[in-house]
Amino acid sequence: MIPLSDHDMLAQRNHDEESRQSFVNDFRIHLASNVFPGNFPTYYNRVLPNFIKEKGREPETRHEVRKVMTHDPYYSFWSAMQRNSQEMIWDSVIDSVERQLPELIEKSRKAGDKGSLTLDPDLETPKYHVAADIHLQPGAYHSDQIEDDVAAGAMYDWGTYIYSMGGLGTGNNALGQITNGFFKNEYPDKKPLRILDMGCTIGGSITYWAQQHPDTECYAIDVGAPVLRYGHARAEALGAAVHFSQQNAEHTDFEDESFDIVMSHILLHETSRTAIQNVFDESYRLLKPGGIMMHMDLPQAHGQQPLEGFLFEWEIYNNNEHFFAQLRDMDMAELCRKAGFKDENIHPKSAGSFWMDDQTPYADDGFEFPITIGIK
Amino acid sequence: MSKDDQKKIKLPRTAKGKKPQYFNDPTVDKLLSMVLTLMGELSVTRDRLDTVERLVEKNGLFKIDDIEHYEIPDDVNQIRSERRSAYIARVLKSVQDELDALEQKGDGKNTELAD
Fold it and tell me: What's the structural domain count of chain A?
């Protein structure tokens, strides 16, 4: 595995920790390339004929496919291994973080002041965030295990990189590269003065924006204190000025019409039916007239075949991505309309790895996300 | 317990949230986790041995600390990655076997011998 680019906050791995992470990386690549594709012949040669024999027709929805595929021995075995591989990611990063935690906390306390960090110990962590540990990261993104904890951020940095099998790029910033590339292409004449990234975790995306737009004031919010402490120290270590604050994207303390861009990177599917509308409402409130909302998230169900739709939803049931089940069928344009955006200013677009400046080894396989645009 | 031990931080190791059961007998779920962990640990051991072998060849003699500071050259990284892929495929052969059988035409009987 090609390691992440080093920075001062990155947990250093000893020999066996590096090897364990490389194993998980290679195991997941094997599952994705060699075992997962077997779900297609399994379905067409075994599950589908049985379904037709019993019902006299093909499954009409992904939910019907789920009912039969989850009992298939090949699918079950792949699914169980995939789940294990996700748990093994965290197991492979936790030792190095636990060992170095005192030093990492000390470094974060001494982080620079190009940007800033504002925490709110009274902020209530939303229910959708505490119900289950998102992506199976033990302790999730918001739990402090010790005073001034940064462990969740340090684990997230390595863990998401291994999860993506390198797809997030060695700077762990692919999503920021994609929105930045998308923005430059769609709006070449716009020069944003003040931008906000919602649900930033360790700020991989906004830090990239800050590096690319040194004259732009960059703000980032998240509900999790340990990821923000880490994110701030990480951004400072990379020489980027980002203002991090602990806030819920549903209701922030920023002034009306104070941002040129309000965006998020795969945040929406971690929220809830009520929260997602609040996030769109808040985005509208914060935008200056002419400002641009860009929420990039995972693909929705429409246009997908029943089998494809079913396979796409594995993470919902096996990786604690519960709200994604509902987001799959939601009308994003309607969320925009309710927030106040006019029909002619709502644009469903897509953005993908082809916008990345830094073409990583796996970027050429390509991945693409829908991005919901609203212009105020 | 020494003072240092008391100060040691223990991070949580189990994610909150209902864990799915994949097999009819939950023991199989546990056994699979154990097998996969064994796969990983054997791979780690093989990597460590690889480092030792390369250092022995390079230095003739080495200190244990050398292992911790061994920097993996790109070509070695590539060799290790390919070896790991082959190793994973070997341990998971039972999965591939099922798939291969599914894709094979016929009933699996050797007609030349079955007279």
Answer: 1
- Find the closest chain A residue to B73 by CA distance: A2
Q: Per-residue confidence of chain A (376 residues) as pLDDT tens digits?
A: 888 999 999 999 999 999 999 999 999 999 999 999 999 999 999 999 999 999 999 999 999 999 999 999 999 999 999 999 999 999 999 999 999 999 999 999 999 999 999 999 999 999 998 888 889 999 999 999 999 999 999 999 999 999 998 888 899 999 999 999 999 999 999 999 999 999 999 999 999 999 999 999 999 999 999 999 999 999 999 999 999 999 999 999 999 999 999 999 999 999 999 999 999 999 999 999 999 999 999 999 988 999 999 999 999 999 988 898 899 999 999 999 999 999 999 999 999 888 888 766 554 567 789 999 999 9
Token pair recorded at residue A323: 């709200």
Rounded to two decimals, the ipTM of the complex is 0.73
DSSP A285: H
Q: Is A324 exposed, middle or buried (0-12, 13-18, 19+ CB in 10 A)?
A: buried
Between positions 83 and 102 of B, the ones with CB within 8 A of A are 84-85, 88-89, 92, 95-96, 98-99, 102
* Interface with B, mutate which of A77, A98, A142, A162 (most B CBs under 10 A): A77
Which residues in chain B have Cβ-Cβ distances shorter than 8 Å to A145?
Answer: 9-12
Q: What is the 3-state secondary structure (H, E, C) of chain B?
A: CCHHHHHCCCCCCCCCCCCCCCCCCHHHHHHHHHHHHHHHHHHHHHHHHHHHHHHHHHHCCCCHHHHHCCCCCHHHHHHHHHHHHHHHHHHCHHHHHHHHHHHCCCCCCCCCCCC
CA pair distance B71, A54, nearest whole angstrom: 59
Residue of A nearest to B7 (CA): A102
**Domain locations in chain B?**
23-103
The residue segments making up the domain with residue A208 are 1-376
Residue B66 sits at the chain A interface (C-beta within 8 Å): no
For residue A354, the 8-state DSSP code is: G
Residue carrying the six token digits 């999790």: A224
Q: How far is the C-alpha of A147 from the C-alpha of A105, rounded, in Å?
A: 9
